[in-house]
Each structure stands twice: as structure tokens, then as C-alpha cells.
Amino acid sequence: MAEKLQMLALSPTMEEGTIVKWLVKEGDTISGGDALCEVETDKAVMEYASPADGTLLKIVVGEGGGAKIGDVIGVAGEPGEDIADLLAEASAPAAAPAAPTPEAKPAAPPAAPAPAPTPAAAAPTPTPAPTSVSAPPAPEGKDGKIRSTPIARRMAEQHDLDLRQIEGSGPLGRITKRDVQKAIDNNTARIVAGQGSAAPAETVTIPVSNARRVIAERLTQSKYNSPHFYMKVTAIMDELMNARKMLNQRMKLKVSFNAFIVKLVAMALKHHKLINASWTEDKIIQHGRVDIALAVALEDGLITPVVRNCANKGILEIDEELQDLIARARERRLDPSEYQNSTFTISNLGSYGIEEFSAIINPPNSAILALGTTQRTPIVGENDEIKIHSAMQMTMSYDHRVIDGVVGAAFLTDLKGMLEYPVQSLY
Amino acid sequence: MREITMRDALREAIDEEMARDETVFLMGEEVAEYHGAYKVSRGLLDKYGAKRVIDTPITENGFTGVGIGAAMSGLRPIVEWMTFNFAFQAIDQVINNAAKTRYMSGGQFKVPIVFRGPNGPAEWLGAQHSQSCGSFYAHVPGLKVVAPSTPYDAKGLLKTAIRDDNPVIFMEGELAYGNKGEVPEEEYTIDFGKADIKRQGKDVTIITYGNCIKHVLPALTELESRGIDAEFIDLRSLNPIDEQTIYDSIIKTNCCVVVDEAWPIASVGSYVAWLISKNCFDELDAQVELVASEEVPMPYNHTLELAVQPTVEKVIEAVEKVMYLN
């Protein structure tokens, strides 16, 4: 019995594919799993594995032709078979894919656009077709939704079970009381991995505070809207540490490390105006002011007080402002004007012993600097000698809508230079 | 305990209440000389005389109104309708006078009256004489509506109905008068607004009322043989409804089938299903299923007549659905 060869979803997001090359000719004998043609998907060129055994009777979509998932690209069967009906069907509008007839093996259900990655799509070499397209019954509905009954949800919550790990036996994969009971009885689908026989700690529900909600919304928006990319360098901090030590000794002061960083970053930003910018959909605003925010941890959340106009302030002035802002931030006594509208942000987790991390850009900034701890580190010198230095890893996160790689690299290299040779900032 | 028929249980209730209170009287078509179309009032004419057991002309609107007037004047009439199908003639009297007068007179007039008679699908009576009428009355504030399914419930509820100071619609199953059941010799009454759990179970809740029990009882037997432990609630009282008993059961079983031989739109059954969806949403493991009559006038053809009503098979199918057994 002749059967249609239909376009399959060869990548999870593929809707249409282009036949790059047929690897077999009409009249060739084919068997299930043979590569029949190469298909260019939205991601890559993939081989199309035959879902049928027999003879390739007809190529319907030639090289260079496009076919939506479910479209007939060829017909396989026994030599001499009458395939007029199948071809007529194939030429019918693609929008109305034929229902799977009993003779069309389950190999290619045209009605199922199969958004779920099929084994064929996941593996570079498609596996034999009969299994390659009949997607396993996903526990989630076709639309990716987890369907469950109210009592099933409550039971799962009470027993700390992850509904995603429970297979629903109801209509459309609905998870029912019985399915959850089974998971409870079999002790599967636990959210907290069981630690031996120790009872899992109690689940606590914490209401979301307004501050937490704002953090969640802003950072989600940032991560969602601005395409982040990251750069890391290690700066040798010996000079800066000495400079700070000297200054503090001579002037009988205790100027904070952060004040030095803020000042040096401000100087670097002065030379790299593209970094000190904001994206506003139809224009990029390059700020004349250098207003640097410093992320300050609070009991519940964080806040970013801003030191204004840093490029034109001395380190002592910056330090005084920082001390005042941080103290009042912890008491939650900052005015919104004191933590909004920065042009750049620094997040420093060095005092927590973190070696390096990547931060989420603080809108409306286009970049954020994440600082790790400064620690004694073996570093290979110019003559391949290994020396121990105080070194700090820093990571820049950039918004690619505003800043390209080379621009970001230039800034970070300069900043590294200024940290390593503070006197460079005078140039 | 002795077993008596539904018609005898009803007669005992009327007899006892007439003996207890001389303002109680019975009126309706053929209730006196002929002892009632279904022989509920056998012997009452001889015992209480023509002043208290009154044959009326064939005029439902008229004698229903006379009864309401008598109730407003201090008597306690029991008005028998030969069937609820004929009583649509009198529905204006019931809804606009019986149900409203106590409210509209600011409580100056009470209307202690019982309207009773056969209700629901019978056999070979055709579309106009074979319908379940409870929804029409349960809809109306000011009326109490009850529907017993057993001789025991019938007697206890009718005595309560006669003593109630409000109009009570008392619906008897047209095919149930010969049904026998245990009824104690000693006096008892059954409060309105109290459902009866006729079978305790833990797997599924089945709710019905009145003569619809005839579809549910065989289904229970079949379910039991399959190892399904169903809880069966007989509402008995349609207005007021015993919500707590329903909810307690749903909390136990998490799924429910409502069986009602009325049509599904705006019926007591669909209202109960809504109550459950609203108040037990978090307890449910499946949508509430309603087994109702098909939305057609009752066919005369007997095969069709049975097919449009709830059946044992339909009840079992609904149980399978809410328990995900298929």
C-alpha cells in the first residue's frame, strides 16, 4: 500500500522546511530510517529519515522546494502502484492536511504539529521513523499546560509533590486524585529530594512584599527586554590596595574600597560615553552626568542608592556620600530621588567571599559591573614567572541593544588598567 | 418493623394530623367518595365526614384558591392535586398568592397549606401528563418544596408539612404509591432541610430526590459489585436544601453525580451541581456530572419514554466519568 511521506518537525520550533537535496531517486528502494533527503529547518540542515519501507515512487517537493510540517514531500510504496489519489490529496491546500487514514501508518500524523521535541528533532541523526514522529504521550497537554484537578493540586502541595513529575491519567492528561495518591504511595515526585530518612522541612509560604514585587518586576523586565552579554577580566589590585592604605594612613582616614571603585569607574565612564547610556526604543540617550548606583543589600531585598556626578567629585566626597546613603538605605529612609535614575550600577559581593558573578542590568542603565572578592592569586607574569598578587575578578553585563562587544571590551580594558595603575585615571 | 405502602404512609400522616388538629382538612378531585385517584384517602370520609374531606369540581385554579383563602382564615388545608401536571392551571394561585401573601401582608396572614399529589414521569401518559415539576416550585421564594422517596420519609415529611405555617409543595412519585417500606407504629416527624444519607460510602457521592431513587438504587447495587463504595444522598427537601450534608460528603469523596428526572436547565439538580462547584471547588477531582431528562417533551412510545429519562446505565456511566474509570 502506497503511503505519503510527510514533512516532519525536525527541530522543536520548525514550522516549515526546505528540501536542500534528495539523497535518493524515484525508483530507489528505501527502508525505514534511511536518510531520504536533507531539509533546512529554522536551525540547521537535518536529514529526513524514511518513515516507510518500499520504493520511492514519487518526489513531490523537489530540491529547493519548501514544505510545511505535514505536507507531502513524496510517496513510497510498491513499484507500479496507482498513487494518483495520494498525489491529488497532496496537491490539496496544505492548510487542510488529510486525516490519518488507516493505511497511512501512524508514522506521520499530519494533524499533530508536534511542538514537543521529538526524538528525531533532538538527535542529530534521525532515528527510524515509525518511532521518530509518534511523540510519547507528554504528561503536559499539547499546549504545554499541566492539567490537574483542584483536589489533586492540594494533595500535591500538602505532600510536597511536583505536579510536573506526575503523569495524569485523566482526559487530556489531567492529573487526578488517584494519580497523586499513586505518587504519594510510591514516594515519587518529591520536590525536596529525600535526605535519607530525614523528614523534609516544613514548606513555608511567604507573602510577596511590595518591595520584593518591584524587584521581581524590574529585574524580570530587564532580563527579558535587554539582551545581556557578559565579559570577565581579572584586575591585579596591588597598586590600588597600596594607594588606599597609604591614603588612609597619611590622612588618618578610613576611605572605603567602594569609594575608590566608584571614582575609578566614573573616570573610565568619562572616556567611554557609550557605556553611560540608556535605551528608549526610538533613541539612545548618552548621559552627560555620571551617576553611579551601588547595590546595597537589605533584610528583604536590595536597593541602589546613587552617588551623583561622580566624575567631578573627589574620592573623599564620594565616600562621605556613600556612607550616608548606605546607612540611610539600611534604615529604609531614602527618598526615591536618591535611588532612581542612575546611569551605571556597581554590585560588589567581594566582602561575601564571592570570586565572581554576573549581574542583571539595573534599568535604565545599559551596563552593570559585578565585583568579586580580592584575594591572593598566583598570576603568570611577562616572563612566564608566577607571582602572587592581590587580584579581583570583575564581570560586566552589557545591554547589546546599546553596547557592542568591542565597545564593551574597550571600556573594561581601560577600567582594568585604571584599577591596576590608578594613576592612569589622571590621563 | 412493619412494612406499609407509600399510599398508606401518606394516609396515616393525614389521618393522624386530622385527628390531632381539627383545623386540618383535605380537599381535591375525588378525594372523598372515590378515596383519591391513587387511594391515599381511603376511609377518611367515613372517619371525618364530608365537612373535612371535600370533593371539589374539576377546577384546579378554583379549589387551590379556595384552599389558600381557607389557610389565610386560620384553617390548615391539604389540597390534593390529581397530578402536578393538572396543577399548572393553579400555578398563579400558588406563586402569586400562596407564596407571597405572608410576605406582602407583613406577616399578618400566614398561609399554612399543603399542596400534594403525584409528580414526575409515569408510564404511557404522554407529554402533558408525565413531567417532573419540582423545578417550577423550588424556584419560588416563599414556598417549601419536599419530595419523599420512601414510605418512612413520606409520612414524617407530610406531618411536618401539615404543621408548617407556610405553603408546602409535597411531591409524591406517581409510580411510587405501591412501594413498601418500614414505618414505625409510633409517631415521628422529619424536619425540612435535612437530607438523608441512604448509603454511606467514600468513593463517589450520588445525589437525587423523590422517585428518581428507582434509577439510583439498582446502580448502587451494580457499583457495589464492582467494588465502588458510593455514598447516596436523598435530598428529601428541595427548598430549603441541606447544603452541609452535601458538602461533607464531597469533602470525603471529591466527586459527585447528581440525578434529577427534571429537564436540566434551571433544575434543582443543576442548582445542586452549581452549589458544589461553587462551595467545594477545591475539593473536587472532577466536574460534577448531572444525569437529567433529555430536553424533549415526554415521548409516548415506551422505548423512547424510558430512554429520555435518567437510567441505571446513565448513572453508572456518570460515576465512571467522575471517577476516571474509563
Q: What oligomeric arrangement do these chains adopt?
A: heterodimer
Helix content of chain B: 25-40%
Strand percent estimate of chain A: 15-25%
Question: How does the overall form of chain B come out from the CA principal axes?
Answer: globular
How many distinct helices of chain B? 12
Give the CATH superfamily of the largest domain in chain A. Chloramphenicol acetyltransferase-like domain
Number of helices of chain A: 10
Q: Which architecture of the largest domain in chain A per CATH?
A: 2-Layer Sandwich
The fraction of residues in strands of chain B falls at 15-25%
Explained architecture:
The complex is a heterodimer of chains A (427) and B (326). Chain A is of the alpha+beta class. Chain A folds into 3 domains: 3-133, RNA polymerase II/Efflux pump adaptor protein, barrel-sandwich hybrid domain (OB fold (Dihydrolipoamide Acetyltransferase, E2P)), CATH 2.40.50; 137-205, Dihydrolipoamide Transferase; 211-426, Chloramphenicol Acetyltransferase (2-Layer Sandwich). In chain A, 26% of the residues lie in helices and 23% in strands. Chain A is built from 10 helices and 18 strands. In chain A, the strands form 5 sheets. Chain A has a 6-stranded mixed sheet with strand order 9-18-17-16-12-15, with helices on one face. A 4-stranded antiparallel sheet of chain A has the order 1-8-6-3, covered by helices on one side. In chain A, a hairpin with a 4-residue loop joins strand 4 and strand 5 (45-49). Chain A starts with a strand and ends in a 7-residue tail after the last helix. Mean pLDDT of chain A is 83; it is low at 93-142. Chain B has 326 residues and is α/β, with parallel strands linked by helices. Chain B folds into 2 domains: 3-182, Thiamin diphosphate (ThDP)-binding fold, Pyr/PP domains (Rossmann fold), CATH 3.40.50; 196-322, Rossmann fold (3-Layer(aba) Sandwich). Chain B is 36% helix and 18% strand. Chain B is built from 12 helices and 14 strands. In chain B, helix 2 links the parallel strand 2 (24-28) and strand 3 (53-55). In chain B, helix 3 packs parallel to helix 4. The radius of gyration of chain B is 20 Å and the shape is globular. The model of chain B has no long low-confidence stretch (mean pLDDT 97).
